[in-house]
């Protein structure tokens, strides 16, 4: 990492670098191990819903990963019946907002929280869903009430929650965190999502949310030329994210956070993840071993 030679502060170590398990599209734990080996990474954010929904395939995956020296940085919980076809469909179906699916979402969340507690996974990220910007919108209080239920339920099991950015502006998320008034909740900052959803500049966003950010997704995107339509995810370094400026903010955060590479488009996933890993490594210019990646 570049450092002011006049500074008395010690240089920070290379952040922990991992990859989102779902980016590798594994069919079973051995698939995931093989793909991880190809990326040169030994840490992962693990999608947990398959472990509780498909135990015949995934029941032993956490132990298998750990036996092979793979560190589980965090878990991911996805809510049921999400439809990402358009911005409008995900607005209607994403996160905890849909009334019709809330009982099922809560039931799945409890099972994931129990698994996280059992396996000592201390951080879970998920999309809260589109939270209305208007504080007077009656739907907003419904969503916040449900989020408090989830935060408290995970917290009782020693698990913290991180809301993923993108579906709201950074200011809305910050206001929501203050309104929730819960210590066990932070932000999983995804700069590409800010672009994909058209929710503001990711550099301004991470500056605003730096003190509340507990994990970062490394993902890139280009904005849509048509308002109200999706932008496009692209390999890291080829999109609209200003990575030098972004990593400068990450380096100045009050806590060190893990950088988790996410790639949800394209067919050259392993190659694109390697590219993203190299972008991170070149920026932070690590010297020495980073034991956080393999613990």
Outline the structure in words:
- This protein has 295 residues and is an alpha/beta fold.
- The protein has one domain: TIM Barrel (Alpha-Beta Barrel), CATH 3.20.20.
- It has 12 helices and 10 strands.
- It has helices spanning 29-39, 49-53, 55-58, 61-67, 87-93, 102-118, 138-155, 170-180, 191-196, 202-209, 243-251, 269-284; strands at residues 17-20, 43-47, 71-76, 123-126, 160-164, 185-189, 213-218, 220-222, 232-234, 258-261.
- The strands form 2 sheets. An 8-stranded parallel barrel has the order 1-2-3-4-5-6-7-10. It has a two-stranded antiparallel sheet with strand order 8-9.
- Strand 1 (17-20), helix 1 (29-39) and strand 2 (43-47) form a beta-alpha-beta unit.
- 44% of the residues are buried.
- The model is unreliable at 1-12 and 286-295 (pLDDT under 50).
Instruction: Write the CATH homologous superfamily.
Output: Divalent-metal-dependent TIM barrel enzymes
Helix content: 40-55%
Report the average pLDDT across residues.
Answer: 88
Number of domains: 1
Output the structural class: alpha/beta
Classified by CATH, the class is Alpha Beta
Helix-strand pattern: EHEHHHEHHEHEHEHHEEEHEH
Biggest beta sheet summary: 8 strands, parallel, barrel
How large a portion of the residues is in β-strands, by DSSP E?
Answer: 15-25%
CATH architecture: Alpha-Beta Barrel
Please report the number of helical segments: 12
Give the number of DSSP strands: 10
Uncertain segments: 1-12, 286-295
CATH topology: TIM Barrel
Shape: globular
Rg (CA only): 18 Å
Order of the strands making up the biggest sheet: 1-2-3-4-5-6-7-10
Measured distance between first and last alpha carbons: 22 Å
């Amino acid at each position: 990492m570049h450092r002011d030679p006049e500074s008395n502060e010690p240089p920070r170590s290379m952040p922990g670098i991992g990859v989102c398990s779902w980016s590798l599209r594994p069919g079973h734990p051995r698939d995931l191990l093989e793909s991880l080996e190809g990326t040169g990474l030994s840490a992962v954010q693990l999608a947990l819903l398959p472990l509780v929904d498909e135990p015949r395939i995934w029941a032993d995956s956490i132990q298998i990963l750990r036996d092979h020296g793979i560190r589980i940085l965090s878990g991911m919980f996805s809510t049921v019946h999400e439809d990402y076809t358009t911005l409008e469909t995900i607005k209607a179906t994403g996160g905890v907002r849909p009334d019709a699916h809330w009982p099922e979402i809560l039931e799945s969340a409890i099972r994931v929280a129990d698994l996280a507690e059992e396996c000592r996974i201390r951080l879970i990220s998920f999309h809260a869903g589109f939270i209305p910007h208007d504080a007077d919108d009656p739907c907003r209080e419904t969503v916040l009430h449900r989020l408090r239920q989830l935060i408290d339920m995970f917290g009782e099991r020693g698990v913290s929650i991180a809301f993923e950015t993108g579906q709201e502006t950074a200011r809305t998320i910050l206001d929501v965190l203050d309104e929730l008034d819960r210590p066990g909740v932070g932000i999983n900052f995804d700069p590409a999502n800010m672009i994909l959803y058209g929710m503001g500049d990711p550099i301004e966003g991470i500056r605003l949310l730096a003190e509340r950010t507990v994990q970062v997704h490394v993902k890139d995107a280009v904005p849509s030329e048509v308002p109200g339509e999706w932008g496009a995810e692209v390999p890291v370094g080829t999109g609209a994210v200003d990575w030098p400026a972004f990593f400068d903010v990450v380096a100045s955060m009050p806590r060190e956070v893990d950088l988790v590479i996410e790639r949800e488009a394209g067919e050259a996933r392993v190659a694109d993840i390697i590219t993203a890993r190299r972008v991170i490594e070149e920026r932070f210019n690590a010297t020495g071993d980073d034991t956080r990646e393999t613990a």
